[in-house]
Amino acid sequence: xxxxxxxxxTGAAQGIGYAISEEFAKQGANVxxxxxNPKITDVAAxxxxxxxxxxxxxxxxxxxxxxxxxxxxxxxxEFGQLDYVVNNAGGGVLKPFAELTDDDFDxxxxxxxxxxxxxxxxxxxxxxxxxxxxxxxxxxLGSIYNPGGMGAYNAAKNxxxxxxxxxxxxxxxxxxRVNCVAPGLTKTPLNEGGFLEKILPTVPMKRAExxxxxxxxxxxxATEATFMTGQTILSDGGVSVGLK
Length: 244
Prior knowledge:
Elements: E1 6-10, H1 15-26, E2 30-35, H2 40-48, E3 55-59, H3 65-79, E4 84-87, H4 102-130, E5 133-138, H5 151-171, E6 176-183, E7 186-187, H6 194-199, E8 209-210, H7 211-223, E9 232-235
Parallel strand pairs: 1-2, 1-4, 2-3, 4-5, 5-6, 6-9, 7-8
Helix pairs in contact: 1-7, 3-4, 4-5
């Protein structure tokens, strides 16, 4: 159990981010749910009514340094420590490569890659002061084995995997771990519909992953995999190992 531990999850208002927050809460942790959507305060309050640990909702923009620092400051003011971070916030424009505009590319890379960089930098500074910490970033199976139309998204998610490795090596000897989880086809409010049905036949397990399933992977990597750092863990129903 994670009693008296504190977890911080970005992009936590819905989907995978919310599921990760709930998994931390189920295991007894105090959880900070961060999101740019103002409803995050209500989402956090509702989650807090279901489990024993405390929850805090923070309105935060991962592309703004001051907003990120304010979110971390709120966390320390409320709980006095931070043990685990999941940098989940992200999204992207999915188009064939030649159809991507400069704005499409910039929006996707700024949110996913630059946003994760900004969060990691602030989190690492906090963990260095504390003397410990664990970060898990959100990668994507689609950046390695992709169905097309993911040029900007691939650039961002591959960059996140590279940053994960770099930070892991920089701080491996300072009690700080940095890893990445790359979900496969996951059923969330953002990808239900035609895209989900189109890709489903390519999954050897012949079904989509649930947000609750991949949330368990994120929390395990953050909390239990104590000799793991710099890794990207695929949770993909077998896509990366073969076709069936």
